[in-house]
């Protein structure tokens, strides 16, 4: 496994940094500046990236400033109601044409020399145009730079800079079923969720892949959260530590599932359609809502309702959490050893005020920069990064041998499935990462040549 310092020379093949069969991954890919810059070029300008949620830009002129890789972009709904994603840079000298996190506007006016752009991205106003530019500047040619493709999946808005990328639905593949568990209403109505309580943003000193990998289903790190579990700060803080989170999982089969394009999830399957397990005894309104949703979902989805969510990652950097508190977490690259985490919370569109209140408090104490769970994770990621970046440490690969050879087909689920805690999800994720870094064609990036999935398809046929 490659371990030399490549801070000045990025060398292909990147496949040398990831030995999937042996379960070894070089520490170099989590700290090397040259590799980081290559990732921005080769991963983040190609892959579909989550940009924001349509509920953040409901009305014409609404915008939300987001990121794709390390670049600022504007998600905006134009005056006719169509969604766009623009690079947030003026075509004159590059100033950000939008300096706000979100808002509503008729035009983006550049503060530097005041060129202005419509919400459709067209260059509209150029000061002293007649006197200084008339003959030379064709406004039609100097629109804001727009992504090559944009797609809306159940309210989540995604974009890619690559016109040759496969359509989003194809890119998500069978990982959709797990992502749906976060995006659908608790009662099973498709995509019946909206963003709630603002976006939390904070910068942590660790590589972006560390967070993306954790959301693939690193269930093995539960010891990190033991203190949180023991004091009982779950969805219903008043009712104590146990409750529905555990009861509805009685006898469940946990699954760690990965997909050819690099996505992965940890979900669980109930042995049969279990009755609702009480969890909010202190709050009858809330209890009624969750019970009703649970029962409606069973009615709507039938046997498929046995599939229950935990977490997942859509390659490269979008994590989702389908259990309360449902959320989307994006790990924006911010340097080889820094990540800007953005967290969106999701809630049923129809959730009543009591439910919103209880979940908002749960979000605050459980997740985010001040939440008790996430601060456990970030302490680990920060110190692991510190202890991995030195010249001696970098010679030694990380161990990814957990449950090697255990994954395979599953009777109920698509994908490569392990029924025991497994590092197969990251093994697939990093294998796909090497394909992007080695600039393979889309067919490879979708994992169509991956021996694991070729074999899986053969065994299913
Ligand atoms: Fe925007 Fe000059 S940089 S108008
Ligand atoms: Fe954690």
UniProtKB/TrEMBL annotation:
<feature type="domain" description="Rieske">
    <location>
        <begin position="48"/>
        <end position="127"/>
    </location>
</feature>
<keyword id="KW-0520">NAD</keyword>
<dbReference type="GO" id="GO:0051213">
    <property type="term" value="F:dioxygenase activity"/>
</dbReference>
<dbReference type="Pfam" id="PF00355">
    <property type="entry name" value="Rieske"/>
</dbReference>
<protein>
    <submittedName>
        <fullName>Ring hydroxylating enzyme alpha subunit</fullName>
    </submittedName>
</protein>
<keyword id="KW-0479">Metal-binding</keyword>
<comment type="similarity">
    <text>Belongs to the bacterial ring-hydroxylating dioxygenase alpha subunit family.</text>
</comment>
<dbReference type="InterPro" id="IPR015879">
    <property type="entry name" value="Ring_hydroxy_dOase_asu_C_dom"/>
</dbReference>
<dbReference type="InterPro" id="IPR001663">
    <property type="entry name" value="Rng_hydr_dOase-A"/>
</dbReference>
<dbReference type="GO" id="GO:0005506">
    <property type="term" value="F:iron ion binding"/>
</dbReference>
<keyword id="KW-0408">Iron</keyword>
<dbReference type="Pfam" id="PF00848">
    <property type="entry name" value="Ring_hydroxyl_A"/>
</dbReference>
<keyword id="KW-0001">2Fe-2S</keyword>
<keyword id="KW-0058">Aromatic hydrocarbons catabolism</keyword>
<keyword id="KW-0223">Dioxygenase</keyword>
<feature type="region of interest" description="Disordered">
    <location>
        <begin position="227"/>
        <end position="247"/>
    </location>
</feature>
<dbReference type="InterPro" id="IPR043266">
    <property type="entry name" value="RHO_NdoB-like_C"/>
</dbReference>
<dbReference type="InterPro" id="IPR015881">
    <property type="entry name" value="ARHD_Rieske_2Fe_2S"/>
</dbReference>
<dbReference type="InterPro" id="IPR036922">
    <property type="entry name" value="Rieske_2Fe-2S_sf"/>
</dbReference>
<dbReference type="GO" id="GO:0051537">
    <property type="term" value="F:2 iron, 2 sulfur cluster binding"/>
</dbReference>
<keyword id="KW-0411">Iron-sulfur</keyword>
<keyword id="KW-0560">Oxidoreductase</keyword>
<dbReference type="InterPro" id="IPR017941">
    <property type="entry name" value="Rieske_2Fe-2S"/>
</dbReference>
């Amino acid at each position: 496994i490659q371990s030399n310092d490549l801070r000045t020379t990025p060398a292909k093949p990147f496949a040398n940094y990831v030995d999937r069969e042996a379960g070894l991954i070089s520490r170099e890919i989590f700290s090397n500046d040259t590799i980081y810059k290559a990732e921005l070029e080769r991963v983040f300008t190609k892959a579909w990236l989550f940009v924001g949620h349509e509920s953040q830009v409901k009305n014409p002129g609404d915008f939300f400033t987001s990121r794709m890789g390390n670049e600022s972009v504007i998600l905006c709904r134009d005056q006719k109601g169509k969604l766009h994603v623009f690079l947030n840079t003026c075509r004159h000298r590059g100033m950000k044409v939008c300096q706000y996190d979100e808002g509503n506007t008729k035009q983006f006016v550049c503060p530097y020399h005041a060129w202005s752009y419509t919400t459709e991205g067209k260059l509209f106003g150029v000061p002293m145009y007649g006197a200084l530019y008339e003959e030379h500047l064709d406004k039609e040619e100097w629109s804001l730079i727009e992504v090559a493709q944009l797609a809306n999946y159940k309210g989540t808005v995604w974009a890619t800079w690559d016109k040759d990328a496969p359509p989003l639905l194809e890119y998500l593949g069978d990982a959709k079923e797990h992502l749906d568990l976060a995006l659908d209403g608790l009662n099973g109505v498709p995509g019946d969720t909206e963003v709630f309580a603002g976006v939390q943003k904070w910068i942590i000193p660790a590589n972006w892949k560390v967070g993306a990998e954790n959301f693939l289903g690193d269930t093995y790190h539960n010891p990190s959260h033991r203190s949180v579990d023991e004091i009982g700060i779950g969805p219903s803080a008043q009712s104590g530590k146990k409750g529905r989170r555990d009861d509805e999982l009685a006898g469940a089969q946990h699954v760690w599932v990965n997909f050819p394009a690099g996505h992965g999830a940890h979900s669980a399957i109930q042995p049969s359609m279990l009755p609702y397990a009480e969890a909010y005894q202190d709050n009858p309104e809330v209890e009624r809502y969750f019970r009703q949703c649970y029962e409606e979902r069973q009615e709507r989805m039938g046997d498929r309702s046995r599939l229950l969510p935990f977490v997942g990652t859509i390659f490269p950097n979008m994590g989702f959490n389908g259990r309360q508190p449902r959320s989307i977490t994006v790990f924006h690259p911010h340097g080889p050893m820094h990540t800007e985490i953005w967290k969106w919370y999701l809630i049923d569109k129809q959730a009543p005020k009591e439910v919103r209140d209880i979940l908002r408090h749960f979000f605050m104490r459980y997740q985010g920069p001040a939440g008790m769970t996430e601060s456990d994770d970030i302490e680990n990621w920060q110190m692991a990064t510190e202890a991995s970046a030195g010249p001696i440490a970098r010679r030694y690969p990380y161990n990814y041998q957990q449950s090697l050879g255990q994954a395979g087909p599953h009777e109920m689920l698509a994908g490569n499935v392990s029924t025991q805690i497994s590092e197969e999800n990251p093994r697939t994720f990093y294998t796909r990462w090497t394909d992007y870094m080695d600039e393979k064609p889309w067919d490879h990036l979708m994992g169509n040549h991956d021996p694991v999935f070729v074999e899986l398809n053969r065994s299913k046929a």
